[in-house]
Design brief:
Blueprint lengths: L2 H11 L26 H5 L1 H13 L11 E2 L2 E2 L1 H9 L10 H11 L5 E2 L1 H8 L8 H20 L4 H11 L3 H6 L4 E2 L5 E2 L7 H4 L7 H19 L6 E2 L10 E2 L2 H15 L6 H27 L3 H15 L19
Parallel strand pairs: 2-3, 6-7
Antiparallel strand pairs: 1-2, 4-5
Helix pairs in contact: 1-14, 3-7, 4-5, 6-7, 11-13, 12-13
Length: about 325
């Protein structure tokens, strides 16, 4: 350890050691879980439903007492469409809105399609070798294929949930070429991001998710870097009271955020600006908490010593180990 670092640590120890972590601020608003509407299956069945309507227009409808709407845990297509789309008194086709409402009501209980009922209908003697038989067989095939898709998880709902969470830690880590802190100490920002943290960052509100990412990552870094409360995230080139974080820190942080969330490179300027805003607010709170624990003059006492060491050797921390999050400290 360099003499400069020993000197700085001696000064910091006089003001009661490491800064506490900033008080956590509740998220600006709760993130609602995505809900998959019960009527998603209706969209899957649109083609089959329309096909069946056309078939039934060519064929005489069975009597209402022929079969129930479902049997053996499967929907009977003809009876289903008759109940949901045909007026029981006049026998006329209902409006689209009425059909949609009735279909949604009946599909509350998900069931497979009874394709065999359609095939049995296609084998009636007066339908053999006719266009109607062909259409009925095609409708039965559609029923089989829809039944197969129902065996698998709804890929749309899975994709929606994955897209909503949206932060890819592997890509974020790959995009992290490393950056530095004041004094030249290397840091790998992405190593402070955990899977548990990222699970709360939803792309449904991208700006809110990015802000949470910046804040929670900074909180973890502050717990590992005893000098973090003396840093600044300047929004201009003008001199600051505290020691400015280097530009490569913000560029690296922005690249990690863009890779993790899949944000367009065109928005990098906006992301870096948001990073500076969030860090500025966080550092102010961190210093306030530090003063509460160590005394109102504790920050003022430590800052001149830090600046003095930097003036003597701006890279006095360069030989220290790269700063890593706890989960990656052994790498």
């Amino acid at each position: 350890m360099s003499e400069a670092l020993k000197y700085l640590e001696k000064v910091l120890n006089t003001v009661s050691g490491e800064p506490p972590a900033a008080k956590r601020v509740p998220p600006s608003r709760a993130i609602d879980r995505l809900l998959v509407d019960d009527d998603l299956l209706v969209n899957d069945n649109v083609d089959v439903v329309e096909e069946e309507v056309r078939v039934e227009q060519q064929l005489p409808l069975p009597s209402s007492s022929a079969r129930p709407i479902s049997s053996g845990g499967r929907f009977c297509p003809v009876e289903f469409m008759k109940k949901t789309c045909i007026d029981p008194n006049s026998g006329e086709l209902l409006t689209r809105e009425e059909c949609d409402r009735n279909i949604k009501q009946e599909l509350r209980n998900k069931k497979k399609i009874d394709y065999y009922h359609i095939m049995a209908k296609s084998q009636e003697e007066h339908l053999v070798d006719t266009e109607s038989q062909y259409l009925l067989m095609l409708s039965a095939f559609h029923g089989v294929m829809i039944n197969e898709t129902m065996k698998k998880p709804d890929s749309r709902s899975c994709n929606q949930e994955a897209d909503a969470v949206g932060f890819n830690i592997r890509l974020a880590f790959s995009a992290d070429d490393g950056s530095t802190l004041p004094g030249g100490r290397k840091i790998r920002i992405s190593s402070f991001i955990t899977h548990n943290m990222a699970s709360f960052w939803r792309k449904t509100d991208m700006e809110d998710a990015v802000a949470k990412c910046i804040l929670q990552t900074a909180e973890k870094i502050a717990k590992k870097d005893t000098l973090f409360f003396l840093y600044a995230a300047p929004k201009s080139k003008r001199a600051t009271t505290y020691v400015s974080l280097p530009d490569d820190f913000f560029v690296s942080f922005g690249g990690i955020i863009h890779a993790g969330f899949g944000i367009s490179p065109e928005d990098m300027t906006k992301t870096i600006a948001l990073t500076r805003d969030v860090l500025t607010n966080y550092l102010d709170r961190l210093r306030s908490d530090y003063k509460e624990v160590n005394g109102k003059d504790s920050v003022k006492s430590a800052l001149p010593s830090f600046r003095s060491v930097l003036e003597k050797d701006s890279s006095f921390r360069a030989e220290e180990d790269t700063l890593l999050g706890s989960e990656h400290a052994s790498e």
